[in-house]
């Protein structure tokens, strides 16, 4: 369990931060950017939860907890086998849960015949914001994976998360009835 007595440590005053394994890296390192972007997505989900109906809120609460797991995963470099045994990692079951929730919500939605613009309801708008941040986190994680090994389930989770947030936005928009659809060239 994490215990935080003091919030500031002055350890980052010179532009470095500690990873879970104790190593020091620049605050703009790809690994730090990856878990920092996951944190941004989590904050946007927190905004969506302020407007979410109970079923959506329950899913989002689980996702927020998963995102802390994901941040821990990304902040723990692969390598030291002793640390690897106890490292908190995203697992396939977490990805599968997102897929099952996407499938269940999608069963109640009419197929789209246009792209959806972010909006419709406050909850949906915040979910679209969280979705775009999750996509950015995925891109950063993919970039990180090109130079350092990371858990492949972390990238899968981020990929499914953005899909989940898209489908959930449609779900909270009155099962898609309140979606705002793109009308190509409408303002020419």
Write the layout of secondary structure elements.
Blueprint (H helix, E strand, L loop, with lengths): L15 E3 L5 E3 L3 H20 L4 H21 L6 H6 L5 H15 L9 E2 L4 H26 L4 H21 L7 E2 L7
Antiparallel strand pairs: 1-2, 3-4
Helix pairs in contact: 1-2, 1-5, 2-6, 4-6, 5-6
Structural features, described:
It is a single chain. The chain has 188 residues and is mostly helical. The chain has helices spanning 30-49, 54-74, 81-86, 92-106, 122-147, 152-172; strands at 16-18, 24-26, 116-117, 180-181. It has one domain: Cobalamin adenosyltransferase-like (Hypothetical Protein Ta1238, Chain: A, Up-down Bundle). The strands form 2 sheets. A two-stranded antiparallel ribbon has the order 1-2. A two-stranded antiparallel sheet has the order 3-4. The longest helix is centred in the C-terminal third of the chain and has 26 residues, at 122-147. The protein starts with 15 loop residues before the first strand and ends in a 7-residue tail after the last strand.
Number of strands: 4
The average pLDDT value, as a whole number, equals: 91
Radius of gyration: 18 Å
Question: Would you identify the CATH architecture?
Answer: Up-down Bundle
Tertiary shape: elongated
Strand fraction band? 5-15%
* Element order: H for helix, E for strand: EEHHHHEHHE
**Low-confidence region ranges:** none
Number of helices, counting only DSSP H or I runs of 4 residues or more: 6
In quaternary terms, these chains amount to single chain
CATH class: Mainly Alpha
- Taken together, the total number of domains comes to 1
Helix content: 55-70%
Termini Cα gap: 57 Å
CATH fold group: Hypothetical Protein Ta1238, Chain: A
Strand order of the largest sheet: 1-2
